[in-house]
Amino acid sequence: MKSRTLTPIIATTLFAVLAIPVPLAAQHTRYKLIDIDTLGGPAAIGQVDGTGISQFINNPGVVVGGADTSIPDPNAPGCGDCFLVHAFRWQNDVLTDLGALPGVNFSHATSINARGWATGGSFTAGIDPLTGGPTEHAVLWKDGEIIDIGTLLPGVESAGLYVNNGGEGVGFSTVDTTPDPFVFIGLSPFASHTHAFVWKNGVTRDLGTLGGPDSFASGGCNNERIELVAGASFTSSTPNPSGFPTLDPFLWKDGTMIDLGGLGGTFGFAQCANNRGHVIGQSNLAEDVDQHAFLWEQETMKDLGTLGGSFSVAIWLNNAGEAVGGADTTGDESFHATLWRNGQITDLGTLDGDCASRALAINSKSQIIGQSFNCDTNTLRAVLWDKGAIIDLNAAIPPNSSLQLVEPFNINDRGEIVGRGLPAGCDNGDACGHIFLLIPCNHAGAQNCEDSADFTPRTNPASISTSATTQTQRHHTTKEFVAQWRARLSQRYHIHGVRASPRD
Question: Which of 65, 69, 343, 405 is the most buried (most CB within 10 A)?
Fold first, then answer.
């Protein structure tokens, strides 16, 4: 089966994401933990389209995703522990298998809008002539039915990334069946030339390119506007010394693709846009050695800088213009979670004793979720930054809970958090992880919430706000673990079927 791999840009995003540092605030919030079951198999899948791309929960608290069924995966012969994955929907303790396109096919849901419509992908009975594997089509789940969005013909593959509140599905599709010579950079999981698209009411619109052979849509973050899509596109077909053409971030707005430019290099990518048309992303600096996060607003691209090192990445953007992600610290010694607000960069720090962190999402109340990493024990913990404190989310749920919380995905405006955790005896989320939902105990929907849970928020020293560092010198003192994490995060797409040990 195929497996999506991340682009250098989103890859970069993921690199930076691995280190997690600094605190925000917490009101001694306790949470009700809901361990969302699988569909009969051992595991639930994570963010197949890359960190910060998916929106697995909406503000009403409906959760979507993908999970193993009990059916052996027909596209993984000889793999004894590979099971067919289906998209699911969870609402009010009811778990629904959303199914797949006709046949015994893989499916997964990647995002849900406020209306409860979900998008994602499903394998089909068709075969990609370049790979010999089953073709994937973008799909929409709406009112209990699955709609095949199809492809940009004569292309045979497509993927759905998100659906906005206006009912527009956003994704990308192959446009032919000829080999794409630039597929190696990992911006698309498909082998042929790819274009971004918008689908609505049965009509798919090709968004075109900035002059090159390919364009790639990205995630939505808090963008629920119609006629507004962020992504990246090659600007020509002429390769640079890197081996691929110049790639620029774009904003497609009201029928026009706008080239957002870059920070001096030949590689840039828009991570997402908000409802105000602000865009975050990553761009190489001059000479294509270092890469920094950027914010594009009012037709101007701003270098968001770093924490003194050579690299930064922006992963999520709210409608107030607050961006979160991570950045290298001075001398590239570590990687810390960061908040960018009003031109200032804040080091969010780590849990006490940890060495790195990353921020993954921020809601309208400026609550931030992410991970903190301990170099001595090689462990990750899901954390929340809220009102000046950093909280280990494992300390905010009842003792003896069924899961260890390691990988938060999204936080909605009610403060509900969805992510992936590890049951007892499990050390590999892809092999045996479960999706979790955290509901604040002060919410009406959190019945039987154990307010008496033994919880003391882990509060670190106040976060540090400084003017962003924009130095461009290359540093060579990055810690080994940061390099290893970056290598793992250098892929955008984690397509189901290609598993690391034992199950990718």
Answer: 65
